[in-house]
Amino acid sequence: MPHLKVKPFDTSTIKSKIEDSSIMTFFATSDRLDIVIGIEHKNEEFLLQLKQSDGAYLLKYDKVTRPLKVNILKEALDIVSKELSLEVLSSNIALSNTKPALSSAYFKKIEDFEDIKYPKDKVSVEVGFGSGRHLLYQANKNPDTLFIGLEIHTPSAQQVLKQIELQAIENIWVVNYDARLFLEMLPSNLCSQIFVHFPVPWDKKPQRRVISKSFLSESMRVLDKGGRLELRTDSNNYFWYSLETFFSVEKTEVEVRKNEALGVTSKYEARWLKQEKDIYDVYVKSTEISSKKDNIIDFNFNKVKYIQGIENCLSKQALVFDDYFVHFERIFKISDTSLLIKCAFGSFDRPEHKYILLDSNGCRYFVSNPVKTTVNNLAHKLLIEQFILKKD
Ligand SMILES: C[S@@+](CC[C@H](N)C(=O)[O-])C[C@H]1O[C@@H](n2cnc3c(N)ncnc32)[C@H](O)[C@@H]1O
After folding, report:
1. What whole-number distance in Å separates Cα of residue 374 and Cα of residue 177?
2. Which end of the chain has the least Cβ crowding within 10 Å, N or C?
3. Residue 301 included in any domain
4. 26 within some domain
5. Does the Cβ of 342 fall within 6 Å of ligand 1?
6. Ligand 1 centroid to 200 CA: how many Å?
7. How many Å lie between the centroid of ligand 1 and the Cα of residue 290?
8. Are 32 and 330 in contact (CB under 8 A)?
9. Does the CB atom of residue 279 touch ligand 1 within 6 A?
10. For the segment 304-349, what is each residue's pLDDT rounded down to a tens digit?
11. Do 217 and 257 fall within a single domain?
């Protein structure tokens, strides 16, 4: 990732240069002497970090706010080093022509689903597509259906995006996100199938399993009447666990098959077949039309404003509840009346990492709102309480 190594300099001079800067918007320091610089460049907002390293300073990107286009970052590093008259010791900011990873039109971010048009009437979802054999096969076989493939492993997502372009397939969207949270983004009654093929059994950490009671009820909401959740597994343990989960929900039809051959053999399946393992399919049919999702999630902080001394009142410990948490990780001071607060919050499996800009005019997430999930909404309400309660 692009960075500059520069000769140590007097960082207190940065503040005075912000006013005349073409891209620097603020400068902030934490009590641990970390320094961040707010940047606005080519319609993107992000942070640069300044860290001490081996007798020099490292000017580098910030993981949470990093822009997708790496050249924007490199340009910003170059401009900042010139505007601050820094003496560069080493650099890797030569502009490149490589396309950013996951830049395909068939790659969708979870935020895109807040307001997305589905290009086909029929939609199916595949959870954890891995090498993508089954996803690509289904998409080729059913050109009238849009397949949304979910995969948390980024290299697998990148590989399948390559295959989509090579095979000129137009009916797959790839989403690099946790399926357990993603389903919340879909409207009710949208899908005809949800495939979960060979999920990781997580025998020692069952809380990490894809199949759970809440995943099942979200699946039933998202599936159209008559649509099916299709689990395929080689794990005897996972099979029985899933059956128990499926039977615990009312009004579903469950069908079980053993050693059924499908039109395509996935990479994992091929491995189990070689070992002559049994393979189980469990189909769960949605038998009802689900009511519309009431999706009123609002990430405004409304009347929240900076209150003198609030930085000393925010909990140092993570605030942990059954389904979510909030942790104030670092507090940066921009001025006597403005703070930049680095937080982690939301789900335990896929926490959000965000900065919050809190000043005497108001409060907002820097640089973008969290994903509209129920747990993020709960965390947001708690954040408001934390910022307001301290008034008294
Ligand atoms: C055992 S592999 C199976 C891959 C593929 N379905 C097959 O049959 O070859 C499980 C895959 O699920 C992905 N995965 C695990 N948990 C996930 C989650 N919560 N959301 C999305 N993908 C997940 C993993 O990264 C992995 O690629």
Report:
1. 16
2. C
3. no
4. yes
5. no
6. 6
7. 27
8. yes
9. no
10. 999 999 999 999 999 999 989 999 999 999 999 999 999 999 998 7
11. yes
